[in-house]
Structure formats: structure tokens, C-alpha cells
Amino acid sequence: MEPQAQPPKDPNKKGYGKRPVWQWVVLYLVIAIIVYGIIYLLFIHKSGGGSSGTGSSNGYY
């Protein structure tokens, strides 16, 4: 049985594949903003997003 040929090792290649780390960070931030926007629209925006107004001391009645 012949040994399998291994691809040449690239010393510049890191553990994130072919993309640089900054691209992964930007991709993560874009996905996080989209997910936060969906959560905001579904839950926080419909419920008012804050206190119900009872017991607040902001001066408005």
C-alpha cells in the first residue's frame, strides 16, 4: 500500500481557512446585528421595550 500524498503545508495558513480573521469578525458582527434586529422587532418593539409606566419617577403621567 502506497502512502497517501499530503498537500504541501502552507506556513501562512491559519486555522480559519482561507479568509483572514478580520473578515470572520466582520461576518460575525453582521450576523449579530441581524439577529439582534429580529429579536428587537419580534419581542422588544411590540411590548414597548421598557417599564409599563407604573411607578416610574420621570415626571410624566
How would you characterize the overall build of this protein?
The chain has 61 residues and is mostly helical. It contains one helix and no strands. The longest helix has 27 residues, at 21-47.
Total helix count? 1
Structural class determined from secondary elements = mainly alpha
Overall average pLDDT: 75
Computed Rg: 25 Å
Give the termini distance in whole angstroms.
85 Å
Biggest sheet overview: none
Q: How many DSSP E strands?
A: 0
Query: Per DSSP, what share of the residues sits in E-state strands of 2 or more residues?
Result: under 5%
Order of helices and strands: H
Give the helix/strand layout.
Layout: H1 21-47
Q: Quick gist of this model?
A:
With 61 residues, the protein is an all-alpha fold.
Keywords:
rod-shaped, single chain, 61 residues, mainly alpha
